[in-house]
Amino acid sequence: MIKVAIILERADIALGGAERSIFELTRCLRANGVDVTLLAAKGKAQSGEVQILCTRKGKRITFKRFGKLLRRHFAENTYDIIHSTLPYDFADIYQPRGGSYPESIIQNAASYESAFKTRYKKLTHFTNLRRTQLVLAEKRLCRPQCSTIVAALSEYVKSQFVKHYHLSADRVRVIHNGVKLVTKLEPDAAKALQSQVRAKLGIAPGDKATLFLFAANNFRLKGLAQLIQALATVRKIDTEAEPYVVVAGSDSSQKYRAIAKDLNVANRIVFLGSLRSIQNALEITDLAVLPTFYDPCSRFILEALARGKPAITTKYNGAGEAFTDTVHGKRVDDPRNTEQLAQAMTYFCNEDNLRNAKHAIKEDGLAEKVSIDRHSREIIELYKDILKRKRS
């Protein structure tokens, strides 16, 4: 049995997709006979699944302090593999759930509409001391004398490490992200949500409508403004089905409601707020759309594909590698290219195009390809390769 330590900063799935993915991966690894210990700086020790190394009060400890606690733990406990989501150079594997820090800084800055603010964000990113520490740690980890393998969630993430750190290809293994496949649905809850959404949008029974689902907690970074602009363009086109956008997420909607009103599409968009589960929203909509400025490999797009729904996203989303352009969905070059985004949306306002994409997703077995089970099997193969190298 392989004994593995997985390092994460905070053990709380309520914090976001990265934490949820690690817990899903851990359960799959254990189901496949891997002895996994989760080590976190802070969080909730859920059912003994995770060891919290820092018991001091406070939200966050420093990267350096957590590193010292980890080294102390490893001096007293032995593991075959150290698998970290933080850039510690004593780990066997570094799996950056958020991609590389330089790329996230650049693309976050690009998501601001003001050119001045974009330049300002790029020039002042170093004032965030914690992030600067992490960039420097990532750079140290990528030095030729370090043996840590980077487990990239997508080819996009791999390209970031080659571009920003000149990391050699043999130090990177691409293991595309995966999600838990949903087998238990909530038909009553989905039906209630469908009635609510269609009533708010004024969609009558028998009306031809294409519902695009956008789900994110950072509306700016994920391109909601650009999506609303594209929606306004599509509305002017004579499409077979009328386009509507359903927005799920905890971010403030005030600015985006104003944009929709100014563009005369306020009646074509509904804001659901934060949802307990995205599955019911996926059930009652036609496809997923995420014109993001940055996403290493978004769970939302993978969850949509897993449910047999086509997807529209950008080249800045590693999840776009999970499907074939025009066959299973559409990839847009740049979220700021709202004309190209509108063309992609228009394509799926045709019932034949939508039906063909759904059929192709099923026929090509995309659900298995985006599953956490497949992801965990590839992670185990990486563990075995590293152990073989250590023993040779």
TrEMBL record:
It is an enzyme of class 2 (transferase). GO terms for molecular function: glycosyltransferase activity. Residues 16-180 form the Glycosyltransferase subfamily 4-like N-terminal domain. Keywords: Glycosyltransferase, Transferase. Its EC number is 2.4.-.-. Residues 207-356 form the Glycosyl transferase family domain. Pfam families: Glyco_transf_4 (PF13439), Glycos_transf_1 (PF00534). The keyword Glycosyltransferase applies. The keyword Methyltransferase does not apply. PANTHER family: GLYCOSYLTRANSFERASE (PTHR12526). This is Lipopolysaccharide core biosynthesis protein RfaG. It comes from Anaerohalosphaera lusitana. The lineage of its organism: Bacteria, Pseudomonadati, Planctomycetota, Phycisphaerae, Sedimentisphaerales.
